UniProtKB/TrEMBL annotation, chain A:
Protein name per its UniProtKB record: Rod shape-determining protein MreD
Stretches that traverse the bilayer: 6-24, 36-60, 72-92, 113-131, 143-166
Organism name: Pedobacter nyackensis
Alphabetized UniProt keyword annotations: Membrane, Transmembrane, Transmembrane helix
Automatic annotation (TrEMBL), chain B:
Coiled-coil region: none
Protein name (Swiss-Prot/TrEMBL): Cell shape-determining protein MreC
Organism of this sequence: Pedobacter nyackensis
Annotated GO biological process: regulation of cell shape
NCBIfam families membership: PRK13922.9-3 (NF010532)
């Protein structure tokens, strides 16, 4: 990992968290779909990052979000779940020894790979997030519905952002 | 030992996941508990500072509506003052406690962080322990309506468990029949202008457009208007009635709140703690 990549990731972390906290926190469709676009940062962490480091980053990111959302632990657990799914997905779909590309972006990996990757990661994150937030099974179907609508919203935003910023590298 | 190490190392992703995920869940459970000892939330200094600064901008954007609501309230207060001045002093009876002090005091505070999009919404205000705010105090909005209860205080900030929270319950009565009920945001309700009154005894007749007011049993002064009944046919699974209520206050534009300090809160709590647990 070179220093430019690290710098890009740090800048991305600050920008995405600022957007999430100051702007998207106030946004929702009929209180059913709430976007959590900051997870794009965790999706785009470069390949080859050690697992422990990845978990630590996810943990810290979740904790920061929790502080601003007043939901201690909820985002933290969700981000850690996302990191787990990310590691599994990458180890299953990619060649372990050599990564051709530095980052798992849409432009680098192609649309099909990226959309499945983003969908699985977002789904795991949102499931943990919404069920820990509700913290009771009485509202199961309602929570599930909110979760799926939010996944659709977040996924749409993530793919949109990817198309806007990474399209030029498309092969 | 070496084999164990190889095994752990091989599936390190899974073991790290277990460790970090458990920490996350433990944090959540601790946060859900009544005592909130860990302050990684918006009463925290850094987080509070960010929201304070952001609020400077928001305050200007909302000056118009806030001015309107303040002037409306002013007008209402002036009318009340006028009617009080015109009371025949020979007949006037003031009901205060024995020390001749008001039982409830209002403290005005500005909302520096609010949310309406989550399942459990928490509001942060810019007054704290230094201004005399303590946990469990009632919070009402300047116009009409209730906001919630103080959850946590730091030196200069406090968080409020908004009515839009799964654990928020406020004792209310129906104005016409005086039937008691419990105001909750409700399961499966995503509308921040709507709430439910649960556990009204079945023999009461509830009419549409009836006003819901606070009962005075849960730290709120009695008679604060909360909302009007919009639907009386809410299905329930028990022997009680539920009605749907349209709330008077708009949580999405909340700028100022009043924290209600009840003089005998500590005394009442102490007294009620002596009761055997149900």
């Amino acid at each position: 990992m070179n220093s430019k990549l690290i710098l890009v990731n740090i800048v991305r972390w600050f920008v995405l968290l600022l957007i999430q906290i100051l702007l998207l926190r106030n946004l929702s469709f009929y209180n059913m779909a709430t976007p959590f676009v900051y997870i794009i940062f965790l999706l785009l962490i470069p390949f080859g990052t050690p697992n422990l480091l990845l978990y630590l980053i996810a943990f810290a990111t979740g904790l920061t979000l929790d502080a601003f959302y007043d939901t201690l632990g909820v985002h933290t657990a969700a981000c850690v779940a996302l990191a787990f799914v990310r590691i599994l997905f990458i180890s299953v779909t990619m060649n372990r020894d050599g990564f051709d590309e530095p980052e798992p972006t849409l432009g680098n990996m192609g649309f099909k790979w990226f959309i499945i990757y983003a969908l699985l990661c977002t789904l795991s994150h949102h499931l943990v997030l919404f069920f820990l937030e509700t913290f009771r099974l009485v509202e199961f179907s309602y929570t599930l519905m909110r979760c799926f609508f939010s996944v659709a919203f977040t996924l749409f935003s993530v793919v949109l952002i990817e198309f806007i910023f990474y399209n030029r590298k498309m092969r | 030992m070496r084999n164990l190490w190889i095994f752990l190392n091989r599936y390190n992703a899974f073991f790290f996941f277990i460790i970090f995920f458990t920490v996350g869940v433990i944090l959540t459970i601790k946060n859900n508990a009544y005592q909130r000892s860990i302050t990684v939330n918006s009463t925290n200094e850094v987080v509070g500072e960010v929201y304070q600064n952001l609020n400077v901008l928001k305050k200007y954007l909302n000056l118009g509506p806030v001015n309107d609501s303040l002037s409306a309230e002013n007008a209402k207060l002036k009318t009340e003052l006028l009617s009080l001045q015109n009371i025949d002093s020979a007949k006037a009876v003031t009901v205060t406690d024995t020390a001749n002090k008001p039982v409830y005091t209002y403290l005005s505070a500005r909302v520096i962080k609010n949310s309406i999009t989550l399942r459990n919404n928490v509001i942060t205000i810019n007054k704290g322990r230094a201004d005399g705010i303590a946990p469990d105090m009632a919070v009402i909005s300047p116009g009409q309506g209730v906001v919630g209860f103080v959850l946590d205080v730091s030196e200069h900030l406090a968080t409020i468990r908004s009515l839009l929270h799964k654990d928020a319950k406020i004792s209310v009565t129906l104005k016409k029949s005086n039937a008691l009920g419990i105001l909750v945001w409700g399961v499966g309700n995503s509308d921040f202008s709507k709430a439910f009154v649960k556990e009204i005894p079945n023999h009461f007749k509830v009419s549409l457009k009836d006003t819901i007011v606070t009962s005075g049993f849960s730290r709120f002064p009695a008679g604060i208007p909360v909302g009007i009944v919009t639907n009386t046919a809410v299905p329930t699974g028990d022997n009680f009635m539920s009605v749907e209520v349209k709330l008077f206050n708009d949580f999405s534009t909340l700028q100022y709140v009043y924290v209600v300090s009840y003089k005998y809160a500590a005394e009442q709590k102490e007294l009620e703690a002596k009761l055997p647990n149900e």
